[in-house]
Amino acid sequence: MKFKALAIDIDGTITYSDRRLHFMAAEHLRNLGIPVVLATGNVLCYAAATSKLIGLGGKVISENGGVISTGFDTKPHISDSMEECEKAFSYLTPRFDLIRLDNDLRKTEIALRRNIDAEVLQSSLERAGFHMEVIDTRFALHIKSRKINKGTGLAKMASLMDLDVSDFVAIGDSANDREMFEVAGYGIAVSNADPDLKSIADYVTSMSFGEGTVEALNILNRKKFL
């Protein structure tokens, strides 16, 4: 089967563990010959800058599916979920030592430093009746709507590109990539990936981080998937 596009995470997937861009992975993505969508839990400006520096077209899914942009000069699609997140954050603030990240940049979710266990925050919100999700991407904690994720973001992006979501290959490393793997036509987890993500991946690389992405793209080409 030939896939028509690629959706790929950034941090931990095309970077080293310290978030430095892996240049060989970037070169492979730049020369792939099909559209490449960067899908990240980070903010839009970070994702867009990464796309520009790699030499891609500016198609990005940011804030775990909450913000979607089809190009550098296009108006982003922004979900309406921030009010719900702010209420959850206000509830948690007097109960935990929370350190908020990217406060002025995030439009659809709230990111926190990883100084508290995500499950502790999740349990607290559930006991209070909040229908929210707290996920740990290993780079930050995210308070977000359960209705929004990289899977819904990829489905929206596919529609905007006149593709089916199953036309995409997905590559990632973290728990927040799970829904993207579930809707994509094929999912590859790099070796450093979360065990839960590995369990649903179609393929797991032997190499980690950016080296894993290079391995994944070589495998896809050998299988004539791209």
Short structural description:
With 226 residues, the protein is α/β, with parallel strands linked by helices. It has helices spanning 23-30, 44-54, 82-92, 118-127, 150-160, 178-183, 195-200, 209-222, and strands spanning 5-8, 36-39, 60-62, 67-69, 77-78, 100-101, 110-112, 132-136, 141-145, 168-172, 186-189, 203-204. The protein has 2 domains: 5-78 and 148-223, HAD superfamily/HAD-like (Rossmann fold); 82-145, Alpha-Beta Complex (Hypothetical Protein Ta0175, Chain: A, domain 2).
CATH superfamily of the largest domain: HAD superfamily/HAD-like
The radius of gyration computed from the alpha-carbon positions, rounded to a whole number of angstroms, is 17 Å
Q: Give the fraction of residues assigned to helices.
A: 25-40%
What percentage of amino acids are in beta strands? 15-25%
Could you give a short account of the major beta sheet?
A: 8 strands, mixed
- The CATH architecture category of the largest domain equals 3-Layer(aba) Sandwich
What is the top-level CATH class of the largest domain? Alpha Beta
Individual helix count: 8
Number of domains: 2
The neighbouring-strand order within the major sheet is 5-4-3-2-1-10-11-12
Q: Under CATH, the topology of the largest domain is which?
A: Rossmann fold
Helix/strand order, N-terminal first: EHEHEEEHEEHEEHEHEHEH
Active site: 9
Binding site for Mg(2+): 9, 11, 173, 177
Cofactor: Mg(2+)
InterPro entries: HAD-like_sf, HAD-SF_hydro_IIB, HAD_sf, PGPase
List the defining traits of the structure above:
Rossmann fold; alpha/beta; eight-stranded mixed beta sheet; 226 residues; 19% strand; 12 strands; 2 domains; Hypothetical Protein Ta0175, Chain: A, domain 2; 8 helices; globular
